[in-house]
Structure formats: structure tokens, C-alpha cells
Amino acid sequence: MLPESVLGLARVIDAAVARLAASPLGLVSDSDVLATVETLECARRRIDGACAGLFVEVSDRELYTAVGHTSVKRFYAQHHRLGAGEAKRRAQVASAVGVFTAMTGEKLAPKREPVATGVSAGEVSAEHVVEVEQIMAKVPRAASQDDVDMAVEIMATAARELAPAELRPLGQRLLAHLDPDGSLTDDKDRRRQRGITIGRQDAQLMSKISGFVTPQLRAKLEVLLDNWAAPGMNNPDDDGAGAVTGSRAELGEADRDRLVEAVRRDHRSPAQRNHDALEQGLDWILGHAVLGRPTRLPVELVITVEGEDLARHAGVATTATGTLVPVRDLIDLAADATPWLAVFRGMTREILDFGRGQRIASRAQRLAVFAADLGCTRPGCTEPHSRSQIHHGALDFAKGGNTDIGELTCACGTDNRNVGDKPGQWETAIITAGPDTGRIGWRLVGSDGPYRTNPVHHPQKFLRGHPFNSTQVKPIRTEPSGDAAAAADKPNSGPTMLRVRPDDVDTRPHRRGGSPDRRRGSPVEAALATALRSAA
Hints:
It contains 19 helices and ten strands. By secondary structure, it is an alpha+beta fold. α7 runs antiparallel to α8 (167-178). The longest helix is centred in the N-terminal third of the chain and has 31 residues, at 30-60. It is globular and about 85 Å long.
């Protein structure tokens, strides 16, 4: 007899799967193994439908707020550690086959009812549903409802016999039938489909870019690439006087001979030339400060790196947007974009205290918080520093908290606003014991558990006590002057944060114009370095 409650049924499923996983299979007959596989695959597809129903309930009742989250997607992505991609897929499946409730209390039929029927029968999987939705998203808004319903019926029937990827050719034929000459597609359809996605970094730290661009953006890109990605232009392999950078349209007669020679040396593919042109264009944007006044860190390139990795010329550094950069490429990047580079000794995240008596954190404090936290510190949050704010972690400023570096931490806007004293909100405090002593910890309001930190941005935390974390390397320093020089002479100085100046480490000719003052230290940098060395 099966239990009547939903929770009881879920526990029976869990217990049955656990027992099945522990069962020996060596003596099971061939026919029973095949039948078990068929049964489990059918059950997995039915579970996709059950999970869609639970997704709808969690969303409609806003149950995610009970565990400190502000959206159902963040609940699945972070609380259940599924990641943003899987959480998005769950939402897409729930939207297509879930049963929603109208404002009048009436239960509504699923948006893709034929597909939902296949899921309930265990014949259509969540992957099939995602493929169907991706195809239907391209159907023009002007298409008749009868044609749309027929297309869904055809896709649902095919999904019972085809693999998810095999639905794509059928979808293309259906789209061609629904809009054979493209007359139904309008500008709103194109704008609905527009988007560019930068994928996650792979083992080689490379990222794949995909998406759809509007005809207007394509036309502008073609003009840019025609000039900046021409053969011989902006070739990173060309150094010195032979390099031809910038736009081909701006070259003078004196540059034509250099361009001819550059073309002869250019063995790049068209795709590689496009890549180098975009990189050179971004260098130009960063170098000419076209991003506006840098009142916040996201408009500048900020990097933090461990002292050991910098000394070994190995490992990776982390930018404020969460991107990993090989240390071998770090110096070249510093030369081109003049970033802030924070260097710390060992794998401790200690930060010196140079607080200010006002609510808004200074630029120097933001840099220090980035170097310590790298992103939102709420446990499980994946938002990088560039999409975060400075949070008074020890005590809210309105309640008497100080804007001191030891009391500040990084929090994304959503989590920063969700700190309070109501159920479902978070409270923060300074951790006073253990390996995270001195850092800001989080826990749910009303919880008596310990304050926790966020390991997402600090994978090196899991290397504590291992040989990978045994080498001690002195932090890199520049030549100090004045009071800073006297402070720097003190032995056993603590961690430093400083800027790697391109003119100190890069002897190549400048690859773009602009005032040389742009490459010198600012008063903020000088004050920051002096304060850090004095405190050390």
C-alpha cells in the first residue's frame, strides 16, 4: 500500500532508489536487467513531470523565501546547488507542462498539453520539452493559433519516438511551413530572440560565445571587423615597429608598406582575426576610459592573485567579474588595461583596517573587499564582485555600524536587501573562531546554527592542509618612497595590496595612443599603498 501524502510518496521513492542502488545485479537475469532499465527510464520521465508540479507550487506559494531566497530560480540554483543552467531548464519545463492556477482559483491546462501528456506517460523527457520550447520560441507572433497547436501536436508525437536533438530538423521544417517567406516575422520577433551568451570557462580557460544578433548589430559588427580584422591588422604576434593596430580606414600612406609586410606575416584564420579585432577594440575602450567615471569597480579591470602563483608564474588570477586569467598572461593584461592587482601572502584572506567614518565605502575599501571576498559572501551565491555591493556585515550602519574594512563584506543587491530580522531573511556577523576567523558569516534569522561563509569564490579553501598549499612566498612590492619606505623597512610586514604598473614590467612599445599619465599611479593608489604599508 502506498501512502496518501505527497511527502510519504517522495520518501518511498527515495527509499526504493536507495535500496535499488545497493542491490547486487550480478545474478539478475538479462531480461530483468533490460526490464528494470525500461522501468527506471519511464520513472525518470514521470519524475520530470512531478518536479515541474513542485516547481510551480514553490513559485506560487513563494516557499523559497522560507530558506532565505528571493526567487524560485535562485532557490533551485543555489540552495539545491543545481546551478543557473539547470534552474533555468527546470523553470522552462515547468512553464511548458506545469499546471498553473488562474486568479479565480481555477486550474489551467498546461501550455503544451500534448507534451505534458507524454511526460505523464513516461514517454517524453524534460530534455524533449526544452527542445520543443526552443523551437516554439521561434514561431512568429503573427502565426495563427491553429497552426501553433498543430505544430505542438506534431512535436509531441515525434518526441515519443525521437531523441531530443533529433527534434531540431523537424522543428526547422515546421518553422519553414509556418513562415515560408519570412513575411510573418517582424522586428519584435527578432528582438525577442536577440541575445549573446558567454559560456563558462573550460579546462583551458577558454569560453564559447553563442547567440543571435539583430540585423542592425550585425551590420555594425561587419563594419568594425572589416576594418579591425583585416589581414595584417591588430596581430598580437607582431611587436615593435612592424605592428599595425587600430582601424585600417585610419591608416595613412606611410603605413601602407608596413601593412603589406604585416599581411605577409599574418597566418591567422578569419575567426582568429575577428577575435583579435574585438580584443583590440576592448583594449581601446579600457585605455581611453570610455566607460565613464569609475565610481564603482565594475567599470575597471580589477584582478586578485595569490603570491605563490605570481612567484611561480603558474596558476590563475581572478577578475572582479569572476573570470579566471592564467598568471602567465597577467602581466600582458596589466600592460594593456592598467588594472588594479591585489597580491596577498599565502592563502589567508586577512585585510588591513583603514576604515572611514561614513556610510559609503571608499574606492580603496571596495578594492580591499574585492580582494578578500571576490564575490557575494552569502553561502551558495554565485554572483561575482562586479554585480555586488558593499554590505555592513558586523552591524548595519543605521544601527551604529562602522564603515571599517573589518566590518565590510561583499553582497549582491538581492542578498544585501534580504538582510534583516524577519523570518526568511539573513543575519550577518563577524566569525570569531575557526579557520574563517575575522570574516563575515551568514545564517538565517531564527537559526541557532553557526555563521557560514561562501566557498563558491574560494575553491582554495578545500586545499587547506594539502601539499598544494605548503609554499610560502613573499609578496611583491614596488619601490616605496617617503613614509611608505620607512614603513616598508619593518620586518615581518603583513599582506600588501598594490598596483602592478605596466611601465615597471612591460618593455614593449605602447600599442595605442593616449596620455602616458594614464599609466601612472593615481593619488588614491598612493594613499592606499601608504596606508597599507604604515599599518603593516
